[in-house]
Amino acid sequence: MSKLLNSLKEDLIKKYNVNGPYYTSYPILSEWSEQFADNDYKNGLTALCSGKQELPLFLYIHFPFCAKQCYYCICNSTITYNHSTTRNFLTHLSREIDMFYDFFKKRSFIPKVKMVHIGGGTPNLMNEEEFEFLLKQIRKLVNLKDLNEFAMEIDPRTVNKQKLKYYSDKGVNRISFGIQDFDTYVQKAINRTQSFEMVDQLLSPEIRKHFKSINFDILYGLPLQSRETFRKTIENVKKLSPDRITLLKYAHVPERIKHQRLIKKEDIPNYIDSTLMFVESIDSLVSAGYEYIGIDHFAKSSDSLARANKNKTLWRNFLGVSPGGMHNTIGIGVTSTSSVNDYYAQNVYSVEEYYQSIKKNVFPIFRGFKLSTDDLIRREIIHSIICNYCLDFADIERKYKIKFKEYFRKEMNLLKYLEEDNMIKVYKASFKVTSLGRIFIRHICKVFDKFTRNKKCKVFGP
Ligand code: SF4
């Protein structure tokens, strides 16, 4: 048994079994205002245009259609095989891209997009004609030759080798496979059947040569998973040797997501088993040579994510973590989130509302947030905890001209509780997250979250 697993006592798991945000943004989405609208977003974009032109940008595009409903899914997607529906969506999405193009052109701003990610939904549901149409539009904002990363999410059930080669020919250099679990009973319980052999056959040595990096999305806490079945899944993942692995926890919210009601509550592993699945997987992947990165990512040392982890240039974003100091993100398509300068914005969820806004030539904003200086300081601290696993008080003092211990008097007191539980080690002018603290890192971040921290939490004392 590993040292980490050994240090995980049941009492501690119980104590830290409290909901906490994943901090893909700070403040988190639920704190953003629905009063925030098109004009506020334009203020953010104007600030982006008048800032440093050479800053790298991340472009995210959301394609919200899938062929079949996975019961665990929390993404915004509609099940369809109808290409007139997907074409109609792409026509509106192309108009949204034109709105950005016109906005930037008027301000002589040339966006330096260094990373593109097409997510969903199932983007590989687009036929070639639709994909070419989307690429033509993307090229208005992006010089594809300048990209460090052009990533696309792939459903292995609806792709073949020929299509993977096609994406590579079009410039896609990173693919992300939705895998979740290889156990057949678990796959049936989540309505997503894809065998190990099928994925193995798709990822032949010849196909692998076409891509810089291949990611697998894996979920723990799914119905019918046990520590034993999940160990086997992780062994199978290691055999397939992806460059990156994203290991996320299943979120069961049937009161909000109707199709999750098809999952039996009694089939879901309890939180102690779920936590142990996570920790055992960390041990297993790290022993196999993967680096454990951020909250839930793993990468081989040859991957850009591992290099960024080493050089301390990781940045927390809506997709997890990204390399290359990509602090500004523009999200296009329904539900997409943007982070530009001191502003956050999220597009509407409903396709119909999205179409109405686009037709009026209005950015389809559902909610957003303008960060104050205090929010920016706290965001920087939370990102440092998640991406660097430490915090140097002097860095924050220098950048924001504050006296750290005075400014964060209350927070310094709360850190003591985490130090008592061996989550962090506090020094004179810094603190470091311990390997135990990495497992519960969201609670360490929560100390600096002025929005959600005040909600009663047993982690911070009696
Ligand atoms: S393929 Fe992905 S987005 Fe589509 S239903 Fe399944 S989990 Fe959701």
What is the overall number of helices?
A: 19
Low-confidence residue ranges: none
The CATH superfamily label of the largest domain reads Aldolase class I
Gross morphology:
globular
Terminal residue distance: 32 Å
SSE class: alpha/beta
Strand numbers in spatial order across the main sheet: 9-10-8-7-6-5-4-1-13
Catalogue the ligands: iron/sulfur cluster
CATH topology of the largest domain: TIM Barrel
Tally the beta strands: 19
- Beta fraction: 15-25%
Residue-averaged pLDDT, rounded?
Answer: 95
Biggest β-sheet description: 9 strands, mixed
Task: Give the total of domains.
Answer: 2
Key features of this structure:
19 helices; alpha/beta; 19 strands; Arc Repressor Mutant, subunit A; 462 residues; 2 domains; binds iron/sulfur cluster; TIM Barrel; 3-stranded antiparallel beta sheet; single chain
SSE topology:
Layout: H1 3-7, H2 10-15, H3 38-50, E1 56-63, E2 65-66, E3 78-79, H4 83-106, E4 112-120, H5 128-138, E5 149-154, H6 161-169, E6 174-180, H7 184-189, H8 196-202, H9 205-208, E7 213-220, H10 227-240, E8 244-249, H11 271-287, E9 291-293, E10 297-299, H12 304-311, E11 315-317, E12 320-322, E13 328-332, E14 337-340, E15 343-347, H13 351-359, E16 365-370, H14 373-388, E17 390-392, H15 393-400, H16 404-407, H17 409-420, E18 424-426, E19 430-433, H18 435-439, H19 441-446
Parallel strand pairs: 1-4, 1-13, 2-3, 4-5, 5-6, 6-7, 7-8
Antiparallel strand pairs: 8-10, 9-10, 11-12, 14-15, 15-16, 17-19, 18-19
Iron/sulfur cluster binds next to loops.
